[in-house]
Design brief:
The chain is of the alpha+beta class and 67 residues long. 25% of the residues lie in helices and 30% in strands. The protein has a three-stranded antiparallel beta sheet, covered by helices on one side.
Length: 67
């Protein structure tokens, strides 16, 4: 099992944007992103200080390749 790298939220956002995610809003320290796929619209909200890539439906390996 691969460990999730220790990244700041800016690095996470840049990686997710390369995967097609778009920032739709930011309220306080929470950032909202969306991604449209052929099957559904994915929504991801995370605090800028504690990113969660699981909600993005990406494996750690997929996410690491986006960095």
């Amino acid at each position: 099992m691969t460990n999730v790298p220790n990244l700041n939220y800016g690095q996470v956002i840049n990686a997710l944007r390369r995967d097609g995610w778009v920032i739709v809003r930011q309220k306080g320290s929470h950032i909202r992103l969306q991604k449209h796929t052929t099957e559904r619209k994915l929504k991801l909200t995370f605090p800028a200080h504690n990113p969660i890539i699981k909600q993005a439906h990406l494996s750690v390996d997929e996410f690491t390749k986006l960095l």
